[in-house]
Amino acid sequence: MKIISSMAAAAIALSGTMAAAAGDADVKAWVADHPDGTRATVAEVVVEANQTQAWQAITTAEGWKSWAVPFAHFDSLRLGAVIETSYAPNARVGDANNIRNRVLAYLPERMLSIQAFDAPPGFKHPELLKDTFTVIELEVVDPTHTRVRLTGCGYRSGQAFQEMQQFFLEGNAWTLGQLAKRSREGPVDWTKARPPVATN
Fold first, then answer.
1. pTM value?
2. Of 188, 163, 181, 197, the residue nearest 47 (C-alpha)
3. DSSP state at residue 131
4. Nearest one of 40, 15, 37, 18 to 28, comparing CA atoms
């Protein structure tokens, strides 16, 4: 959560809606135009977890490690906090290949907004990260299900933005598929799972 996610295996049409198979969970992903001329990538899925459980999965290091990445460091939820993650199981805090996001805002159990500011070497267009940010929203469906919506904001016209938009659209759909799978099957066993490639 882009968080800088990997590319999903299947291509996603920029103008359409797709169902990303993650087990039997349907992840919907699309691109939305905003009145200010920017575009947003949107991905959402309903997970088999209550609102509190879903919130813990996206706002704690242990939560992230249970579904998104084998390494995560996140000391506390606060304005300006840094979420440091890696797809490398042997990563450590401060490693050059780690992905770093900063917390911009949050509403407990409802919304988390983050901005990636440090990408691994080889990530295309890192200079554009400062222009984009991500909003993760939780919506109660019923006592045991929560809709998680991940919106990447700030994309503009131009080939570089289009390339990054496609990358994150696909990656965010994959990421939410992982979250849905974790809610059904339990935490990922990273000794057996194959982490995705984290660059585009």
1. 0.85
2. 181
3. G
4. 18
Q: 24 pLDDT band (50/70/90 cuts)?
A: very low
* Region for 133 from its dihedrals, namely left if φ exceeds 0, alpha if ψ lies in -120 to 50, beta otherwise: beta
Contact criterion met (CB below 8 Å) for 68 and 172: no
Contact 77, 103 (CB under 8 A): yes
**Under a CB-based contact definition with an 8 Å cutoff, are residues 137 and 111 in contact?**
yes
- pLDDT-derived band at 138 (thresholds 50, 70, 90) equals very high
The answer to whether 59 and 112 are in contact (CB under 8 A) is yes
Contact 30, 155 (CB under 8 A): no
Beta carbons of 109 and 51 less than 8 angstroms apart: yes
Q: What is the pLDDT of residues 183-192, one digit of tens each?
A: 999 999 988 8
With a cut of 60, say whether residue 43 has pLDDT above it. Answer: yes
Q: Which two tokens stand for residue 128?
A: 């554009």
CA distance 61 to 58: 8
